[in-house]
Amino acid sequence: MELLHFYNRNLFLLVFDCSEYRRRHMALYGSHDIFRADNQQGSAIRRQSAREAVQDAMLWLKDGNSVAIFDGTNITREQRRELSDYCLNDMGFRILFIECVCEDQELLERNIIEILHYSADYKNMSEEEAVDDLRKKLEHYMRQYEPIDAGLETISFVRVENMGETVTAHKVAGQKESGILGYLSGMRCLPQTLYFTRHGESEYNVLGRIGGDAALSPRGQLYARALADHFNSLPAREPYTVWTSELRRTKQTAADIRAPKRAVRALNELDAGICEGLTYEEMQERFPQEFAWRDQDKLHYRYPWGESYIDIMTRLRPVLSALEDEHNVIVVGHQAVLRCMLGYFLDAKLDELPYMNVPLHTIVKLTSYGYKYKVEMTKLPVECVDTHRKQPKNCSINRTSADALTTVPSHYDTLPSNLWQNSAEAQL
C-alpha cells in the first residue's frame, strides 16, 4: 500500500495495489503463466488477492477517509459487476472505474521499459527474459479483456486513451469524482525533470530571523553566482524556465541564470504575521504561548494575522497543477514553501512536511519515472548557516525558555564583516 497525498485536489487517497497482495501469497514471481485464464491455481491466488485488497479499501473508507484506489485489472464485465455490487450495494460506497487504453506503440514500449525497471516481479530476471514474460502476460490480459461498454454496463467510468490524449467520462457525479476527472484530464505521463532550490543565504538567515524581505548576504550572493554557473554550463538540450517568489532574495538568487523568469506570488514564504522578522529567541520572549502551540502542531498552527502550512498548501494548488505539465523548471523558493512542494511530489506524509530538511545552497533535482520521482541533491560549495530546526521534545506552554530554544539553530547577533571568508574563520 502506498499513501498519496493529493492535497492539491483535497483528496486524501490510499492505493491498494492488487499486485502487492498477490506477492504476499507467492514467495517469488514465477512467470506469466499465473495470468493464464486456464491456470486455476493462479486464478485462485489472484481472486484472493483482489478480495483482500478490496476489503482493506473498504475498511479504510469506513474509518472516515475520502478515497480508496483499488489498483487491479478488472478486465471482464463480470469482475466489474461483482466489484460494483459489493462496493455500492453491500458497502454503500460509490465506485468509479478508470479504463486505460493505449494503442500508441511508442507509449507502450516506453511503459514496458518502465515496468521492467521498477516492477518487483522482474527484479530477478534478465532483461530479455523479462521482456518476453511481460509481453506474454499482456497477451493473456488481451484474450480475456472486455472493454467497458456503457450500453451493457450500468457503471460510472472514465476512459483514458493513450495516456491522456483523449479522456471521456460516463456518469461522473459529485465533487470527488469531478476532481478525479480533472486530475486525469490534466495528467502528464512524459518524462519530467524539475529543480528546486532555496534562495541564497539572506541577511535574515544570518541573524536567525524569519520571514521578511531581506537581501542576500555576501555568501548568498556567492551562491547566486555558483547557481547560475551550474545551470548555465549544463547542456542546453531543452530551455529552462525559472520561477521565483515575489521576494527579492529569490529574484537576486536567480538573476544570473540565463533563462526566462517568472515571479509567482503563490511561491512567497509563509507569512509569520505578528512574528515576521523576529528571531526564535524573541518569539519565545514575547509570545511564549504561541511558540509552544506552534511546536505542538506545526502543520496546522497559524501565526496570528499570518499563515499555516495548510494555508501554503491551499495557495500552492494551481502552482503544483501547472508544474505537473512542465519540464526543466527551476523553482527558486523558500523553506516552508519548498517543503510543501517537495512533499507533494515525493508523497511525504503531511505531518512530516514542517520538519523536512531543505538546506540552503543545495539543488534538489526531481526526475520522474512512471508516477514517482527520483531525488538527487547537489550541495554547492558555498558556506551558509543551517536554518533547520527540529521539533523540541518539550512542547508544553509551561516549559522553560531553555527547553523551548533547545533546537534553535545557531546564528549571528549582528551581520559580521567577514562573511566573505570561510565559516571556520567567522565565529558564530
UniProtKB/TrEMBL annotation:
<keyword id="KW-0547">Nucleotide-binding</keyword>
<feature type="domain" description="6-phosphofructo-2-kinase">
    <location>
        <begin position="15"/>
        <end position="184"/>
    </location>
</feature>
<dbReference type="GO" id="GO:0005524">
    <property type="term" value="F:ATP binding"/>
</dbReference>
<feature type="binding site">
    <location>
        <position position="249"/>
    </location>
    <ligand>
        <name>substrate</name>
    </ligand>
</feature>
<dbReference type="InterPro" id="IPR013079">
    <property type="entry name" value="6Phosfructo_kin"/>
</dbReference>
<dbReference type="GO" id="GO:0004331">
    <property type="term" value="F:fructose-2,6-bisphosphate 2-phosphatase activity"/>
</dbReference>
<dbReference type="Pfam" id="PF00300">
    <property type="entry name" value="His_Phos_1"/>
</dbReference>
<dbReference type="Pfam" id="PF01591">
    <property type="entry name" value="6PF2K"/>
</dbReference>
<dbReference type="GO" id="GO:0006000">
    <property type="term" value="P:fructose metabolic process"/>
</dbReference>
<keyword id="KW-0067">ATP-binding</keyword>
<dbReference type="InterPro" id="IPR003094">
    <property type="entry name" value="6Pfruct_kin"/>
</dbReference>
<dbReference type="GO" id="GO:0006003">
    <property type="term" value="P:fructose 2,6-bisphosphate metabolic process"/>
</dbReference>
<protein>
    <recommendedName>
        <fullName>6-phosphofructo-2-kinase domain-containing protein</fullName>
    </recommendedName>
</protein>
<dbReference type="GO" id="GO:0005829">
    <property type="term" value="C:cytosol"/>
</dbReference>
<dbReference type="InterPro" id="IPR013078">
    <property type="entry name" value="His_Pase_superF_clade-1"/>
</dbReference>
<comment type="similarity">
    <text>In the C-terminal section; belongs to the phosphoglycerate mutase family.</text>
</comment>
<feature type="active site" description="Tele-phosphohistidine intermediate">
    <location>
        <position position="199"/>
    </location>
</feature>
<dbReference type="GO" id="GO:0003873">
    <property type="term" value="F:6-phosphofructo-2-kinase activity"/>
</dbReference>
<feature type="binding site">
    <location>
        <begin position="198"/>
        <end position="205"/>
    </location>
    <ligand>
        <name>substrate</name>
    </ligand>
</feature>
<feature type="active site" description="Proton donor/acceptor">
    <location>
        <position position="269"/>
    </location>
</feature>
